[in-house]
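Entry for the shared binder. Reason: the reviewer on the internal report wants the predicted structure included alongside the sequence.
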Amino acid sequence: MDDVHEDAAVRRTRRAFWVGWGLLALLKLGIAWRLPLFVDEAFYWQEGQHLDWAYSDLPGLTAWLTRLGTALFGHSVLGVRLPFLLIGALLPCWLVRLTAREFGPLAGWRAGLWWLLLPLAGTLGLLALPDVPLLLATLLCLDACLRLLRRIDWLGVGELAAGLLLGGLTHYRFAAVLLAGGAALLMLREGRALLRQPKVWLALAVGVLAWLPLLGWNLQHAEAGLRFQVLERNPWTFSLQGLRLGAVQLILVTPLLLLAMLQAAGRGLRDPRPAARTLALSGGLLWAGFFVLGFFADRQRVSFHWPLAGQVALLPLLPWVLSGWSRGWRVAAHGLAGLGLLLALAYALMAATAQGRAWAAGHGFYPGNFSDWQALAQQVRLQQASAPPGTRLLAADFKLGAELGFVLKDPDIPVLDHPLNRKHGRQAQLALWGLLQPAPVPSDQSWLVVANPAFAGFADEATFAHWLSRQLGGMPTPQVVTVDAGAARYWLVLRPAAGVQPATAAESRPGAAGVRLQSGADR
């Protein structure tokens, strides 16, 4: 390609990137404003209201970001998410800069476009999840290593230290990024030379400091967080269910883009340039490692997002590979990736509206973790108004405690000792906050209990009702609240103190025969 044509291609691609970046940022902002908090987001908000260096499930950074967002932008779902949206908008720009420095401006803008089109990367920041700062830390470390391979300077050392610091404060999963990156450097002659530099070890020492709060928390609390992340959530037995992760990646990355990434990893390993080999090794090892881990690790919780850091490391190599494809195949790859992104955004948009959630429920894929928590909270307020004086609110599990806590602006709603708390590694944290209510609950106190029998993890509603009755020391007939046109059902149980009769009692039973209290979304 001659200089004139290359300059024209750079201008066209740059314009396409900024148009796509702006449209995607506006669309994500609009969806984030309307989408109810995901249950994990609500718990990170709750952690942010109890500021600490580390928590039972994660280091502190995700919670700190939710606290910062609500402090700067107000108590709202958008306030919780804005720091993550801003980081998510920054990341593709950073990738453009990294790629352009190593492989030229045209490759930089094209790599940025692929970031926008990659479904998981394009939607990054829509939810307030640790994957957002984790990707920032990963990109900082990659950029710093490539810079230091060119020349050892304090700017690169500082960037590496910042990336390591952010990663250690974000998630246990950043250890996989360190292992893959470290292995890649050790496998390269230039990488081994880099690791002999004292300035690089200074950055590594700063990175070690980031893990001290998490280490201290685990030492103080019988390794509860480490045991959950490493032992309790992972069976560590081989299962062919791990193939599901590969199948999900085929869908989420889209088939042609997945093929291009694998080809990029293979060609990058044979490239004489240290930057290409470093990216290919880092991304390939991380992606392959998580794929193998899928055969032995957690099969009950979402894990399809784990390899994203490895995919991002391969994005700078994509333009080089795709330039060798025919125009038809390139168009098809762009089209499939764009379709995947649109489907991901469409799902989020559907979950953001009551009508969309009701439609999804009618077609068998109701997004239960995005229920209409405002409508549920409205019914809780009505019940509190008619309850005996001094009645305390009690949530059956950590999910309801966090979601209702956010809507009611109360981060200290006590929670029952529910199996879900342990399944998601939140039991120790609730106990540390003094919010874990032992069974049976005190009989000298009136309680309004909110429960979700559908997502309780029990065999059926009768089994759950029996468990709840034992927790409460007997259970009055619950009132049934439905939201999203009946797609989600909740129980409100008014358990008065001994010798106290409730002012009102709606006669309903668990199941279809119960009284249906309509929420505003149902009317």
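Summary line for the report: Strands lie at 392-395, 415-416, 436-437, 447-451, 479-483, 488-495, 516-518.
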